[in-house]
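Researcher: I've been going back and forth with a colleague about how Phosphoglucomutase might be arranged in three dimensions. Neither of us has a model we trust, so I'd like an independent prediction. The organism is Listeria monocytogenes, in case that matters for your notes. Sequence below.
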Amino acid sequence: LASGADLGVIFDTDVDRAAIMDKNGESLNRNPLIAVISSIILEEKPGTTIVTDSTTSGHLQAFIEAKGGKQHRFKRGYRNVINEALRLNANGTPSEIAIEVSGHAALKENYFLDDGAYLIAKILMTYATLRKNGQDLPDLIADL
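Model: Here is an independent structure prediction for Phosphoglucomutase. You can compare it with whatever you and your colleague have in mind.
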């Protein structure tokens, strides 16, 4: 806050998990982070299935469904959610992302590699467009 930054990015030590802080110092992690990336993914791939770990909230499920997607909760563990997304895709159910509340995420377009930097880069591309239009990341999840 003291620096006046528009956005803060947080990674774990091996950069496979990520979180965001908005300009007001509010964290966008856990369910809100999943909601942000789900909103972005569902704009690109309407109707896709978002695979999450089992600890997500009912509010997140309602949010994803309101955006036209499906949430598929699965057992905890990043390999578990990634493998479930791979299984769903192999069986004909489109799934573009596997993500845990820990910020551990893997996107289909990035070969389902667990890559926090890729997740943040995808969010930053949308963030630039939002800012250009006078909006901010929290605007994406106002209905959460």
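Researcher: What would you highlight for our discussion?
Model: I'd start with this: Helices lie at 31-44, 58-66, 78-90, 116-132, 137-140. After that, consider the following. The domain at 7-137 is CATH 3.40.120.10 (Alpha-D-Glucose-1,6-Bisphosphate; Chain A, domain 3).
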